[in-house]
Amino acid sequence: MAKTPDTSNWSTIDKDLSRISHVETAVAYVTRPLIATGVALAFIVLAGIAAAVFFSQTSTVAIVVAAAVFGAYMALNIGANDVANNMGPAVGAGALSMGGAIIIAVVFESAGALLAGGDVVSTISKGIIDPAGVAETRVFVWAMMAALISAALWVNLATKIGAPVSTTHSVVGGVMGAGVAAAGFAAVNWSTMATIAASWVISPLMGGIIAAAFLALIKSRILYREDKIAASRKWVPILVGIMAGTFAAYLALKGLKSVVEVTLTTAVLIGIVLGFTTWAATRPLIRRKSEGMENRKKSVKVLFGLPLIFSAALLSFAHGANDVANAVGPLAAIVHAVQAGDLGGDVHIPTWVMVIGALGISFGLFLFGPKLIRMVGSQITKLNPMRAYCVALSAAMTVILASWLGLPVSSTHIAVGGVFGVGFYREWHMERRRRKNLSGSSEAPDVEPDERQHRKLVRRSHFMTIVAAWVITVPAAAVMSSIIFALLSLLH
């Protein structure tokens, strides 16, 4: 006769298995960040080994290896922080999953860096300091090393606190701080620094205004129309044509400048031609896709999904082409200085240095990028495909306008400014409609101040954190760089 199972034993086993499951979950939670850190450290070590292989026969191998290590570290931080500005809006709007965004960004960032990355980098970044002040090779090498280390540390810290900052401005601050420590305040080109400081305000304002203007256009010409589908068939091809033309001009002007020299006029003409071509080709596609759609806002959002994905990919390509120099520019300058002893003129970036920059940006995005992608995409203000499209379009358009005006701007500030722009515009628009409803109805109650505060569409805590990080980026990087330069100068 079979025995009846002892249910008390089964209960004990279930409890034990539950405890084991909780322990495994806790271990996975604790070790996940360590895995990312371990992979990043492995990449940094491999970058150092690559430099050692290329310069094993030279007496300056130790300096080049150290520069390669810190260049790889900087590239990882650019991937973790800067790339979020291109992918955040598309992810926040639901047009891309986090995995899809990372794959697209890795491919297009790497392609931009390797195919159209800057072949030439000024030895003294952007004319910030006088080359005569650092004419000695050793002083120059320590200055560039200090700039590289301080910029990487600052971007790493900003990523940790969840603040998207300009890696370009971090490098600028690092070069300025090292220059002051090496040759005094007189060595700094303060007019150049004043122009860069002005861009802290100009970049986000231009990005925000343009993004808000396009959102206002979409609302007035499509969303508030009686027949939204008919309005979409007319205006979506126009908007996609504007996007295609803007990005064509943007890539011609910025992303492909190392392949072929393109003037601003030529870039604009290329943009106009491609814009009209895209508009003509998109009209039948939008008409076909919109057939059978319901006459509501949700249907309109679908039509902006694919253009938004393309814009994110193109922004990543242009970012890789331009900002990889932030990681490898000082490294290339150090390599050139120790090889040739020539501190003047331009420096050609070796292929192995570009590969370190491209791979570093990709690894940094994959390992540490999701935090900032979520911040930009969903934690500042709520985005949908139309709002995110306005942010992406404003980023490209602002760069072109800034180039025309001769202003140095930050892609980070422009993109995040665009996110703030659409958020603050929606707040203003909502308040305007509320007041209009109040004026038309004597019975409609006003909203209490506390309740109105809850209706804010932009998170003020993130706004203040990001703006504060922008303001102190150059001074913080400069102070860190001057201290690091002083410490490095003790080495002989």
Q: Report how far the terminal alpha carbons are from each other.
A: 89 Å
pLDDT averaged residue by residue: 81
Provide the low-confidence segments as ranges: 450-454
- Whole-angstrom Rg: 26 Å
Helix-strand makeup class? mainly alpha
Strand content: under 5%
Silhouette: globular
Counting DSSP E segments of at least 2 residues, the number of strands comes to 2
**Number of helical runs?**
16
H/E series: HHHHEHHHHHHEHHHHHH
**Fraction of residues in helix:** over 70%
For the biggest sheet, the summary is: 2 strands, antiparallel
Strand line-up of the largest beta sheet:
1-2
Précis, in short:
With 492 residues, the chain is mostly helical.
Could you characterize the architecture of this molecule?
- The chain is an all-alpha fold and 492 residues long.
- The protein contains 16 helices and two strands.
- The protein has helices at 7-54, 61-81, 84-92, 98-116, 137-161, 167-183, 190-223, 228-255, 264-290, 297-340, 351-368, 370-379, 385-405, 411-440, 449-454, 460-489, and strands at residues 120-122, 346-348.
- Strands 1-2 form a two-stranded antiparallel sheet.
- The protein is globular, with a radius of gyration of 26 Å.
- The relative contact order is 0.18.
- Mean pLDDT is 81; it is low at 450-454.
